[in-house]
Amino acid sequence: MTTPKVAIRGLYKIFGANDKDLVSLVEQGMDKATLLEKHGHVLGLQDIDIDMQPGEITVIMGLSGSGKSTLIRHLNRLIDPTAGEILIDGEDVMKLGVDALRLMRQKRMSMVFQKFALLPHQTVLQNAGMPLSVQGIDADTIDTAARKWLDRVGLSGFEDRFPAQLSGGMQQRVGIARALTANTDIMLMDEAFSALDPLIRTDMQDLLLELQQELHKTIVFITHDLDEALKLADHLVILKDGAIVQQGEPQNILLNPCDPYIEDFVSDINRGRVLRVGSVMQDLQQDSFDGDVSVDSNLESLIAKSDGDTSQVFRVLNGDKVVGQLDMKVLVRALVPRISGQPRSVK
User: Fold this and answer.
1) In angstroms, rounded to a whole number, what is the distance separating the alpha carbons of residues 303 and 144?
2) How many CA atoms within 13 Å lie on the side-chain side of 222?
3) Maximum Cα–Cα distance for the chain, whole Å?
4) Of 206, 295, 308, 335, which has the maximum CB count within 10 A?
5) Contact at 8 Å (CB) between 150 and 177?
6) pLDDT tens across 308-340, in order?
7) Could you tell me which of 118, 124, 120, 133 has the C-alpha nearest to residue 156?
8) CA dihedral for 6, 9, 14, 18, sign (positive or negative)
9) What angle do the packed helices 139-152 and 124-133 form, to 10 degrees?
10) How do the residues of the chain divide into helix, strand and coil, expressed in percent and rounded to 5?
11) pTM of the complete model
12) What's the CA gap between 60 and 236, in Å, rounded?
């Protein structure tokens, strides 16, 4: 199995003066409310274990106060854990000295913020080139790299504008260009699209996926929006009160929620738009079919293709390779959320 780019092991964060003394109480079962009531400390994260694979988008999501932003800030040590390990390429970042930590932030990780965090007195070009500027890189190299990535995010021609002269979506594009100019393997994105209007937000999601197909960055993306998480994630982690409730491949979580909290979380999702044919297809069982469908197509497109005829069966292709079949009756069952406590089977 591939070695994780980022590995989190047994991570705890307790906010308060005596945080390390209270870890054992949390390990023994003390919950967040009790810890606050009896000891005046806030439980931020509890026993977090996550493997983030190279070249994948790991989405960490949860409601407000679930600990998702606290977690991402541990990766570059803007917040230090109370206990646990954070490994980048197998190296424990908690053992890095001041200079090594600064170097890691400059060369191995970049960050895209929700509120853009652009310097208002600098031009778009200067903002995009900032990661290289703080490293002392020569001006020509900075200019070339910044212009390249501004062009890639659709901002060629805006280099001499100032942030206040741009729309919110354009400002966020500058933030992405800045992160790409840093040329780091890891990108941290904390609610990066949450401040944007819905249509602009969709455009930014599409842009991120388009860039990711080429660049294969290791991206850690924080969101409270399940539709966004399901669209972007290769690996999805759902938090509640600082603990992981469920993590794994997004389609599998949607089909097999592990407890009532996750069931409620996914109950209002448009399953036809989100679920892919490959998640509900069966092994090949027959020779004749009503048509072919791609393994990556969503179920909504197949419903349209079949004109709602539940008697039809389609052959499933991955490129030119036949990988299975999908009976429309199976598809219809997959559209119905699981009854609480009951296992789902789409076979």
Assistant:
1) 48
2) 25
3) 69
4) 295
5) yes
6) 899 999 999 999 999 999 999 999 988 887 655
7) 124
8) negative
9) 120
10) 40, 25, 35
11) 0.87
12) 6
